[in-house]
Design brief:
Organism: Streptomyces zhihengii
Cofactor: Mo-molybdopterin
Protein name: Sulfite oxidase
Strand content: 25-35%
CATH class of the largest domain: Alpha Beta
Number of strands: 23
Number of domains: 2
Largest sheet: 5 strands, mixed
Keywords: Metal-binding, Molybdenum, Oxidoreductase
Number of helices: 5
Bound molecules: ligand MTE, molybdenum atom
Mean pLDDT: 97
Oligomer: single chain
Order of helices and strands: EEEEHEHEHEEEEHEEEEHEEEEEEEEE
Length: 361
């Protein structure tokens, strides 16, 4: 399988190619640790993966929110600053989008992801706050605008410019990382080499890859990625759309192929993962009969913010024929996955319990 503009191999047991993007096959995570290996981490590119040499690269920080003129950092200078690590997922805002159509019968636009547009990695880099302070950020600054070095995005004949998404200064100074390592290795080209942003818990678009410059502004900033895209539009939302999306929602997925064949009267260990951008997952319930009965799954990881928990539940399928598996998570913010996700035209933030069909044979 190949997707235009992605550098790494995309073997079909690890990835489903969706247009120019690659979705992780969830069953390929079974038996792996909390961290998604880079070879099976999903890829979402608005353009194509650029090849950037770290040696010639630099980051420019500039704008009305700085005390002075632009400040530049080379790759070696960034690596010499105090380092931080964070375990965090990157998840596309549209992850789960296909279920608006297949489960709720609703029209939505965008990449028809199932649940594999997410990966968790251990990111190492320097705090964005550290870099902003060194660049002379002032008290009057309100927004920062990180921008990628990949090509300009042309959508329906309109040039939107380079991928860039405003971030409120408060978040920028909180837990955001300029990451240069993923799972202990330099960032691979597809994931933002040499340096990307990691915005823990927030929609994937915030974690700008192939970072080139950051505008720091004393006025609110706008780009198509926080005005026309990555807001909720449609009859259930304000006419001007919701506020720009920030935190990810709650989801669960089985590490099992859809329509898998499971032998009757043979014990099977169902495994999967649940995650939330709002708070750590504290409970996962499983149903093997389409939602008539529920029981608790065993959690294998301590709940951690911005990451997922692995879980398992034993099952002995009795009756041959079709069955529907469900997994439903609750997080420490008190949210439980609903039966139906609130529709929006671009199909963001799907959070309903996903029906997972299998066949008992
Ligand atoms: N950054 C740049 N420069 N260009 C992009 O196309 N895609 C964004 C984000 N950062 C993108 C980007 C989106 S929509 C997502 S979901 C994540 O990167 C995907 O990160 P990954 O490809 O490392 O999984
Ligand atoms: Mo995304």
């Amino acid at each position: 399988a190949t997707a235009p503009g992605i550098v790494k191999p995309l073997p079909p047991e690890l990835f489903t190619v969706r247009g120019t993007n690659a979705e992780t096959v969830f069953s390929s995570l079974r038996g792996t640790g909390v961290l998604t290996p880079a070879d099976r981490f999903f890829v979402r590119n608005h353009t194509v993966t650029p090849r950037i040499d770290a040696a010639g690269w630099e980051l420019t920080v500039w704008g009305s929110g700085l005390a002075g003129g632009p400040v530049r950092f080379s790759y070696d200078e960034l690596r010499a600053l105090p380092a931080s690590t964070v375990t965090a997922f990157v998840e596309c805002a549209g992850n789960g989008r296909s279920f608006y159509a297949t489960q709720q019968g609703q029209q939505v636009g965008g990449t028809a992801w199932t649940l594999g547009a997410i990966g968790v990695a251990r990111w190492r880099g320097v705090r964005l706050g550290e870099v902003l302070r060194r660049a002379g950020v002032t008290r009057g600054a309100v927004d920062v605008l990180p921008r990628g070095l990949d090509d300009e995005v042309v959508s329906a004949g309109v040039n939107l410019g380079r991928v860039r998404r405003p971030l409120p200064l408060a978040k920028a100074l909180d837990d955001v990382l300029l990451a240069y390592e993923m799972n202990g290795e330099p960032l691979p080209p597809d994931h933002g080499h040499p340096v990307r942003l990691i915005v823990p818990g927030w929609v994937g678009i915030s974690s700008v890859k192939w970072l080139g410059d950051i505008e720091v502004s004393d006025e609110p900033l706008y780009s198509p990625w926080n005005t026309d895209m990555y807001r909720l539009f449609g009859p259930e939302h304000p006419p001007e759309g919701s506020a720009p999306l920030t935190r990810q929602t709650l989801k669960s997925a089985f590490e099992l192929d859809r329509d898998a064949a499971l032998p009757a009267r043979r014990p099977v260990l169902l495994t999967g993962r649940s995650w939330s951008g709002a708070a750590p997952v504290r409970e996962v319930e499983i149903s093997t009969d389409g939602g008539a009965h529920w029981r608790r799954a065993r959690l294998h990881d301590a709940p951690r913010p911005g990451s997922w928990v692995r879980w398992s539940a034993g099952w002995v399928p009795r009756t041959p024929g079709p069955a529907v598996l469900l997994a439903r998570a609750t997080d420490r913010a008190g949210r439980t996955q609903p039966d139906v996700s609130v529709h929006n035209t671009q199909g963001y933030l799907f959070d309903a319990v996903v029906r997972h069909p299998v066949t008992v044979v």
